[in-house]
What does this fold into?
Amino acid sequence: MNRPSIPWPGPHSADADPLVIAGRRYRSRLLTGTGKFKDQEETRFATEAAGAEIVTVAIRRTNIGQDAGQPNLLDVLPPTKYTILPNTAGCYSADDAVRTCRLARELLDGHALTKLEVLGDPRTLYPNMPETLKAAEVLVRDGFEVMVYCTDDPIQCKRLEEIGCVAVMPLAAPIGSGLGIQNRWSLLEIVEQARVPILVDAGVGTASDAAIAMELGCDGVLMNTAIASAKNPVLMASAMRKAVEAGREAYLAGRIPRKRNASASSPVDGTIA
It folds into this structure.
């Protein structure tokens, strides 16, 4: 995707360079998960420190109204303040994923935005792409706005865009691995051919990983484990926020070419003898 033209003078403005998903504009390009935190208070503090506006919720694992007798996540992350992104974590078939999305739509009063993930096996948590494609086709026909977790295969990513997904979310490394960006060529290829937002989903371990994803031209990063499992989740959330912002600015600015030899910072011509 082409770099947008950001006017100068003045610092980069998120208002002038929003993340647009399904026609809605967001200032933050960092999306966060809500699992693995020690309690709801830590979830709230970390989400605020991250500056996230979109928060993803595993419908099969998190109470957002299914159980009236249990704490409701929406009490600390209200839909009036955040865009709730229900996800199909834990689903291993297209049918299960579609049912989960329909349940989420009922619980959230017709909410159409959803994160689709259909897993292949519990060890790697890699996407099952045939089932993912099948579920995406059904959900798009059913009126859902689908953000989809997928492999870093440029062909599969383009197919998901053609089906009608509003954002494509390739992994950078296995979920929760913290290995960082393992597939720069694939991500570059996916970004360059895309006409919908591309967000890295899975594999980020620390702030530099998030910055690299953004420097490659990704439109955003979604993470959970890297924040929630850090020794200080709230501080890590703050670091991730800064990294995503810095990576975006660096991408827009355009890095210098890599060279094998030195290049003087000051010009040689015209120097005093």
Remarks:
- The chain has a mean pLDDT of 91.
- The chain is about 35% helix and 15% strand.
- Residues 233-253 form the longest helix (21 residues).
- Residues 202 and 262 are 36 Å apart (CA to CA).
